[in-house]
Backbone:
């Protein structure tokens, strides 16, 4: 019984392998240090500074395009011919073996016949097909009496047939208006961006930008994280851990940090300037008065909305976590709508002020002119800042709640992506990630090839999705909330750890645990485990006297640096301590 | 070394000679059915390829062979032959197993290549 089950499994496995389609796109990655890597279909990660050569497998392309049209028979013939060509060397070796077997005097045991019968699929495919026979006659010429040459010519004829059939298919697909589009997109914190593939689109390349492979200093968002963790550690040391850690508070922090932008603060200043001008010389403002008053009213309304939102998120949360998230999302959407409206209104008010500038009297004219410029610039700046912040907080919250936050919306070809008929389609394209603009580890890269016919909807041929991570050694910093135990294990009297809490950051060496190939296959190695080894630096207060001491130690981090374990030493007192650190969603926290 | 041309006798004895050749299973044959200038030209070309397991049989008077040929099995892809014997057939290739592998209708050397290759692989 077991044997039967095993056989069935083997057969099913064979069927699966047989039915597995070959990809249309083949990727060759050239890393920034010049290493070439031929991608296998299960690769999910690319180096963020690499150059990708996208090769189009025409055989697969024609086959997929024709599969849905009336050209199935033609593509089936092409498939068989290509399979035959793949076996050329093997077939000619078989022939040589048959001749050898015959020459060895094995004329009676007929082994040579069995060898020759293995070539039947090839002779039948070419010589029983009128088109194949025509091709064979064409390539043969005169004076070919040698059996080896005849079989070699059989494969030459197969190649000629492939070319002829491809041309035939190409012409038919062209005649019915079929075209192919190849595009690439990058998904960053700032949103989706279409990328330039020379020869396939007219999209302008971005300014060259390299993702730093070795970062030893805390970037700005980690500095924010560090500040927030320092506050939390201080609260935890003072009031206990429970008061400091609260997941919902973490989400609140995200929203508040998004609203705490420089432009948001400037909005209040602007409103005050407007108010001051209106108070000072209301009569002298002429026709601009109405527009300025309108702007003031809109700024007041917007500021009160922000204040109310901030106030709301400062309060402790109650109710289910899911309900809270729904509410949170609605608030972010509302914030976006209100900001869009403010942008529109302030821009049109500024235009009105400009028109009425002549009616403003005396010295006020320069003030009002400046105010009009400020209105335009400020609203534009805030709109952009909010766009970035909104993406950041949405992504972070999605990851917090749902794990992987891969955007699933369709990747649409823009007008700049060329519709290419098969005769104009290049063999390959080059996607230089260095000219794909600002990006960071964890960003997503999507490459899509699709085809269309006339005005009918596009049909997908293949979509490749990658995440950008270094697949060789790299260095990153991480901020963590440290739980440290300053009492050495053997010196403890009550056998109980006495934790102290401290902010810390680590300089971690990553990307060293898997080789280049495996590192590209395993997404979880980067997005989930992301192990690192390095140095931890913490701000301690062992004496409890409020004077900060510095601790330094070795650390191992895992789970995207959410957990760190290590041992360090207080550089002032010389006392050793073991510690573990947690990454806490506060400040500029973002999961990459 | 080139194999000699096996020429069948005239009259009914040709069928017996042909059957005798067919009984050996370690050869494939190109059977030339006639003695016209076209057949002669075909024979000259075929003999250049009569090598190792490839043999050429010439039947200057093929009529006694027709009943046997009409009863022989056909390899996959060979169109059926029906009585009366079609006049356009110049030669046939025969597998080591005794099946008709290819029908030659012109003197193009590529046809002879095809006849032998299909006979030895089917």
Residues:
């Amino acid at each position: 019984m077991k044997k039967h089950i095993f056989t069935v499994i083997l057969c099913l496995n064979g069927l699966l392998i047989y039915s597995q389609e070959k990809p249309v796109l083949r990727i060759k990655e050239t890393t920034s240090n010049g290493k070439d890597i031929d991608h296998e279909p299960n690769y999910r990660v690319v180096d963020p500074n690499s150059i990708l050569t996208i090769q189009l497998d025409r055989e697969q392309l024609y086959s997929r395009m024709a599969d849905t049209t009336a050209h199935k028979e033609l593509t089936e013939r092409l498939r068989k011919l290509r399979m035959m060509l793949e076996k050329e060397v093997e077939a000619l070796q078989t022939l040589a073996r048959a001749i050898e077997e015959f020459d060895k005097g094995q004329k009676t045991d007929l082994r040579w016949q069995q060898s020759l019968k293995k070539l039947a699929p090839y002779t039948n495919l070419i010589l029983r097909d009128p088109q194949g026979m025509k091709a064979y006659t064409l390539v043969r010429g005169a004076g070919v009496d040698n059996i080896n040459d005849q079989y070699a010519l059989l494969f030459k004829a197969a190649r000629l047939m492939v070319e002829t059939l491809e041309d035939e298919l190409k012409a038919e697909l062209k005649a019915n208006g079929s075209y192919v589009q190849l595009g690439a997109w990058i998904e960053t914190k700032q949103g989706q961006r279409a990328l330039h593939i020379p020869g396939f689109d007219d999209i302008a390349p971005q300014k060259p930008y390299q993702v730093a492979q070795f970062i030893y200093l805390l970037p700005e968002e980690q500095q924010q994280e560090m500040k927030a963790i320092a506050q939390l550690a201080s609260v935890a040391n003072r009031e206990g851990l429970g008061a400091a850690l609260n997941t919902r508070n973490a989400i609140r922090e995200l929203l508040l940090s998004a609203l705490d932008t420089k432009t948001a603060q400037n909005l209040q200043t602007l409103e005050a300037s407007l108010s001051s001008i209106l108070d000072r010389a209301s009569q002298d403002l002429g026709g601009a008065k109405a527009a300025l008053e309108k702007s003031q009213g809109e700024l007041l309304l917007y500021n009160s909305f922000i204040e109310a939102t901030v106030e709301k998120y400062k309060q402790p949360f109650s109710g289910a976590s899911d309900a809270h998230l729904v509410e949170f999302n609605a608030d972010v959407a509302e914030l976006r709508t209100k900001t869009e409206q403010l942008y529109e209104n302030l821009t049109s008010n500024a235009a009105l002020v400009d028109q009425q500038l002549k009616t403003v009297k005396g010295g006020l004219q320069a003030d009002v002119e400046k105010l009009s410029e400020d209105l335009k610039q400020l609203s534009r700046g805030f709109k952009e800042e909010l766009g970035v912040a909104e993406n950041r907080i949405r992504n972070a919250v999605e990851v917090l709640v749902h794990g992987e936050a891969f955007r699933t919306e369709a990747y649409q070809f823009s007008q700049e992506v060329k519709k290419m008929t098969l005769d104009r389609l290049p063999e390959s394209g080059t996607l230089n990630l260095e000219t794909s603009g600002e990006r960071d580890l964890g960003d997503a890269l999507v490459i899509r090839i699709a085809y269309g016919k006339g005005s009918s909807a596009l049909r997908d041929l293949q979509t490749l999705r990658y995440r950008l991570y270094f697949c060789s050694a790299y260095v990153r910093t991480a901020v963590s909330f440290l739980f440290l135990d300053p009492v050495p294990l053997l010196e403890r009297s009550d056998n109980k750890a006495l934790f102290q809490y401290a902010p810390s950051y680590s300089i971690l060496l990553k990307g060293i645990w898997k080789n280049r190939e495996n590192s590209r296959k395993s997404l979880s190695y980067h997005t989930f485990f992301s192990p690192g080894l390095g140095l931890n630096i913490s701000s301690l207060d062992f004496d409890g006297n409020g004077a900060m001491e510095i601790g330094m130690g070795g650390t191992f981090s895992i789970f995207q640096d959410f957990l760190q374990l290590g041992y360090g030493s207080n550089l002032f007192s010389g006392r050793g301590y073991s510690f573990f650190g947690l990454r806490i969603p506060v400040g500029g926290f973002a999961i990459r | 070394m080139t194999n000699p041309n096996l020429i069948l006798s005239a009259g009914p004895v040709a069928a017996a000679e042909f059957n005798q050749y067919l009984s050996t299973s370690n050869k494939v044959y190109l059977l030339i059915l006639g003695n016209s200038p076209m057949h002669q030209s075909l024979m000259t070309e075929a003999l250049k390829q009569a090598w190792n397991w490839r043999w050429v049989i010439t039947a200057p008077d093929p009529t006694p062979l027709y009943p046997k040929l009409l009863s022989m099995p056909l390899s996959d892809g060979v169109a059926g032959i029906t009585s009366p014997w079609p006049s356009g057939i110049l030669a046939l290739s025969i597998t080591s197993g005794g099946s008709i592998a290819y029908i030659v209708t012109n003197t193009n050397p590529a046809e002879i290549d095809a006849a032998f290759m299909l006979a030895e692989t089917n």
